[in-house]
Amino acid sequence: MIPKNNMITTYPRRITERVYLVGNHFFRSYLVRGESCALIEAGVTWSVPQIIKQLEELEIAPEELQYLIISHAHFDHVCGIPGLKKAFPNLQILASEAAAKVLLKAKVVTGFFSEDIALAENLRRKGHITQTVPTPETPETINVDMVVTEGEQLDLGKGSIMYFSLLPGHSPCNTAAYLPLEQVLFASDCGGYPINVDTIFPMYFAGYEDYVTSLQKLRNIDVSVLAVPHELLLVGSRNISWFFCQSLESTVDLHESILKDYKIGWRQDEISQRLFQRFYRGGLANYSMANIKVCTDLLVRRTIEAVNF
C-alpha cells in the first residue's frame, strides 16, 4: 500500500531545503530554489491560479522564477504553460527536442486544450473544482525555449544543479530530472499512474521495452524523495524501492495478461475495453473516457508490437 506520507492535503509544502510541492493532489508541480528558481511540470489550466497563489505565499518574485521544465508533451503536463507564462514573463520553457516538435503541431495543441476543458468539466461535476476556472488560453502552438538532452545540466546556483535524462517508453519525448544535492528524483510518468493505494496503471504508451528499461534505470539512482506529477510523493529509500518494484511488477503482469488474452483469440478492441473497465476509476476517471480509451488502445498495441509470434 502507498505509505501515509503520500497523503498531503496542504499546499504549498516544503519537501526539502530547496524543493517545494505546489499545485494540487491530482496535478502536482515542484519548485526548486537556488539563486534562481525552476518549476517542474506545468499541469493544466485549473492548476495555474493555485500555483500562482502558492508561489506568492512562498514569496517568489516574478523575476525569480526563470525556468519551467516540461517532462513530456501530454496535455496534463503542458496546458498550464500559457497561464504561467503570462504570470511570469521571464519564464523559459525547457523540454526535450521530441517534446518541442510535438508542441509545434497546431492540431495536437488544439486537441490538448480540448482535453483540458473536458477534464475541468469532470472535476467540477465531481466537486473537486468549486472556484472559477479561467478559460484556457489556447495558443496555436507552444514554443520551447531550451532543448534539454541526455545528461544535460541546469545550474540554478547555490548548488542546485538539475540533471536531465531522456526516458522514452511512457512517451517518445519523456524526460526525468534529478537534483543530486538533495537526492530528489522528478520521475515524470515513468512509474505509471497511482489510481489508489493498491493499484498502479502502467503507461507504456510509446513502447513496453523502453518503459521497463526506464524503470530499471531510475530504480538504480540514489533517491531520498520521489516526486511525480500525479497524487504521489514518496520519501525514504524503502518507500521508493517499494514503488519501483510495484510499478515494474504491475507493468510485467499487465503485459503478460494482454498477451494471454490476445493469444487465445481476444480481439484488440475487446482487450482494450476490458482494460478500460478495470482501470477507469479513482483519479484516472477525472480524465475523459475518450482519452483513457486511447490509452488502453495504446497499451494493447504496444504489447503486441513488443512480441514476435
From TrEMBL:
GO terms for molecular function: hydrolase activity. InterPro entries: Metallo-B-lactamas, NDM-1-like, RibonucZ/Hydroxyglut_hydro. It comes from the Bacteria. Keywords: Hydrolase. The keyword Cytoplasm does not apply. Residues 26-230 form the Metallo-beta-lactamase domain. The keyword Hydrolase applies. This is Zn-dependent hydrolase, glyoxylase. It comes from Desulfoscipio gibsoniae DSM 7213.
